[in-house]
Amino acid sequence: MAIPDTLQAWRDYVADEPTEPPRLTPTELAALSPTEKAQYDDDRVAFLDGNIILSTPDTDSIDLNARLLVGSLASKKFTARPGLAVSGQSTLGKSTATMWVAKKHEQRMRERTGRDKDPAFAPVVYIPTPAGTTPKGMMAAFCHWLGLPMHRTSTAQELTEQVITVLRELGTSMVLVDEIHNLKTRSSTGADAASALKGFAERLDAVFVVTSVRSDTTCRSDPTPLGPDLGRLCR
Fold first, then answer.
1. Tens digits of residue pLDDT in 47-90
2. Which residues neighbour 110 within 8 Å (Cβ) at sequence distance 6 or greater?
3. Which InterPro entries match (predicted)?
4. What's the CA gap between 213 and 57, in Å, rounded?
């Protein structure tokens, strides 16, 4: 499956629970026709290559920290809330792990609130950061994901206000921003987009979880490539 680039695609991801095909014995396998054996092999490969996440110390740590931050949303706070930054080298599974954590969060929230099938409830928003994006481009990505109308003449601030209003109505409590290193905070455009995202996060009662490709995993020791505006998301 492709990444969930719309709200409906995300809901499909959350609802997907892979079912393992039957495990045949050697005798049963030998009794299959070539066509049946090929289909059996295809089904097994599809299952093994599908949406299966095994719990590891890393996923458990991400899940625990995310749950602690979500729990803190119940407290009254009139300043910016901390978020969670997951960083490391490429191909380590950061996006896969954080998407799995966000999926579990949505399932818990729907069960806890009794809104399992409520289309007007969206506990999680998932946004892949557009490469080299601007403040308006960042907000446009949220609008696209949510299926909101956009006008060519709309400003970044107008899109921000629209998205904030909708996320409050949807009861969103976790925002997952994937591949945030695409902001390129060393450039003025990327720094502006990071600043806009920081201001956006400060106005929502939601936990922001960001993923970033880095050469290290100690977020506090080196704020780049998140940049100073997003440094507070480290935990």
1. 877 777 778 888 899 999 999 999 888 777 766 678 898 988 88
2. 116, 118, 121, 123
3. P-loop_NTPase (IPR027417), TniB (IPR008868)
4. 20
Q: Is residue 74 part of a domain?
A: yes
Residue 4 domain flag? no
Reported for 219-227, long-range contacts at CB under 8 A and 24+ positions apart, including other chains, are: 219/85, 219/87, 224/185, 224/186, 225/180, 225/181, 225/183, 225/184, 225/185, 225/186, 226/85, 226/180, 226/181, 226/185, 226/194, 227/183, 227/185, 227/186, 227/190, 227/191, 227/194
pLDDT tens track for 186-221: 888 888 998 899 999 999 999 999 998 863 433 443
Is residue 148, in this structure, part of any structural domain at all?
A: yes
Q: Closest by alpha carbon to 124, among 204, 31, 42, 203? A: 204
**Containing domain of residue 96, as a range?**
55-234
Question: Is the full-model pTM beyond 0.85?
Answer: no
**Beta strands across the sheet bearing 84-88:** 84-88, 207-213, 174-178, 124-128
Domain count of the chain? 1
Euclidean distance between the first and the last CA atom of the chain, given in angstroms as a whole number: 30
Assigned domain for 168 exists: yes
